[in-house]
Amino acid sequence: MDIAKKLEELGFSLPQAAAPAANYVPYVISGNMVYVSGQIPFLNGEKMHLGCVGEDLTIEQGVEAAQACALNILAQVNEAVGGDFSKVKRCVKLGGFVNCIPDFINQPVVINGASDLIAEALGEAGKHARFAVGAPSLPLGVAVEIDAIFEIA
Asked: Which residue from 2, 67, 78, 99 has the highest number of Cβ atoms inside 10 Å of its Cβ?
């Protein structure tokens, strides 16, 4: 599977895998699992998607932030498998955090931005378990942060 080509067909491009912003690694391979650290919606180092959904940002902008997180997740997985996405068996789980106002209830809609993109990019292997929760703030003031677990061959 050429993930870059598939993303291009969907109107996206695979970004550079982001370097960690603190004392952690971007992913860990343990056995046949890849655990991807929380990814924020900066693409190729460009700061974007800053603010609180429901206050500074619309739901649609939150969805775009989640899509950017998904692209960063796929970039990390691409690094983990040495660019050979045929080694990816499936996306097992996503965990999504939305920086939002206290009475915001559409966290699942926002995180669908990532879930939908991964499912479209990977097909059946992209269907995953997930959680989507609200948070009063997120690192660097971003709107969304998402981590992931993938099974690889």
From this structure: 99
At the topology level, CATH places domain 3-13+32-152 in 60s Ribosomal Protein L30; Chain: A; (3.30.1330)
- Read off the pLDDT of each residue in 98-111 and give the average, rounded to a whole number: 98
Pairing label, strands 88-99, 129-135: parallel
Q: What pLDDT does residue 2 have? A: 84
For 70, the 3-state DSSP assignment is: helix
DSSP per position, 81-147: TTT-GGGEEEEEEEEEEEEB-TT---HHHHHHHHHHHHHHHHGGGG--EEEEEEES--GGGBSEEEE
**Residue 93 and residue 150 in contact, taking contact as beta carbons nearer than 8 Å:** no
- What's the rounded Cα separation, in Å, for the pair 124 and 47? 32
Say if pTM beats, i.e. exceeds, 0.70: yes
Vertex 90 angle, CA 151 and 36, to 5°: 55
